[in-house]
Design goal:
Length: 264
């Protein structure tokens, strides 16, 4: 009788058994829910689900105007809103931090590999669906997506949010999760911590002066994980806070604003 029961269940599913909430825009994150176990793909990429059928779609800074979503047998075209990006000029950086030499490039390549490995770690359940807390108190000194001009040379766009704060100010985990990277000294980002929050979403905290967590450690939302610093490529003390979905960088500010306010 089992095949018949399964067939009836499939017939009973409505055509659009998916709900999407959030900001469908460049740098944005959308939360979806469908029947647990459904195969979900975004532009051909596998999308992980939790056991309640929650999933996340992330859109990069330069995402195309449309994306293709498949949920089970259904497919739909999503319209992704375009955003305007600022230009940020930073002068006075040590020349080697703007144009690395070959030995430094080898080190950077290895560090990028470690970050990519860390981003592959996906755990469930999702811990960020009820919202993110502020990682550090301070003034926003750099926004996501801005085109960077360093010592007069165009470089990669800014991949997170900078919060200016004094050296030693506490840095908090924006949501509960598992530490996927705790690096003592990366070329660009200095002391760096990454935390997995489930469904492919991770946060990164860079330029720290102190790290209080270890690889694989579980942390609670708001827990102090380290302190603000100026390690790596930084002109002054600040927290660089990043958010990603798989290998897609997201805008921490707009994503936070689109999620519920956490009750703490
Ligand atoms: Zn930054």
């Amino acid at each position: 009788m089992r095949p018949l029961v399964l067939l009836l269940a499939l017939v009973a599913v409505p055509a659009q058994a998916v709900e999407l909430t959030g900001r469908m825009e460049q740098g944005g994150l959308v939360i979806g829910q469908t029947r647990p176990g459904t195969e979900v793909r975004l532009d051909g990429r596998d999308v992980p689900l939790d056991d309640q059928g929650h999933f996340v779609l992330g859109f990069s800074r330069d995402a195309a105007a449309t994306a293709h979503l498949q949920v089970g047998g259904q497919s739909q075209t999503l319209a992704v809103a375009k955003r305007d990006w600022q230009i940020q000029r930073i002068d006075g950086l040590p020349p080697a931090k703007v144009t690395p030499d070959p030995a430094q490039l080898a080190r950077i390549t290895e560090e990028n590999r470690q970050v990519a490995e860390a981003r592959k770690k996906v755990t469930t359940p999702a811990t960020f669906l009820d919202g993110l807390v502020t990682p550090a108190e301070g003034v926003i000194s750099g926004v996501f997506g801005s085109q960077r001009v360093l010592n007069g040379e165009a470089r990669a766009p800014h991949s997170g949010t900078d919060v200016a704060a004094p050296v030693g100010a506490p840095v908090h985990a924006v949501a509960a999760g598992t530490v996927t990277l705790a690096h003592p000294d990366m070329y660009f980002t200095g002391q760096t911590v990454m935390i997995d929050h489930g469904l492919g979403v991770q946060s990164v905290y860079a330029h720290l002066s102190r790290t209080d967590v270890k690889l694989g450690q579980t942390v609670g939302q708001g827990q102090v994980i380290g302190a603000v610093g100026a390690s790596g490529r930084a002109t002054g003390p600040h927290l660089h806070w990043g958010l990603s979905w798989q290998d897609v960088r997201l805008d921490p500010q707009t994503v936070s604003a689109a999620l519920p306010k956490p009750t703490q």
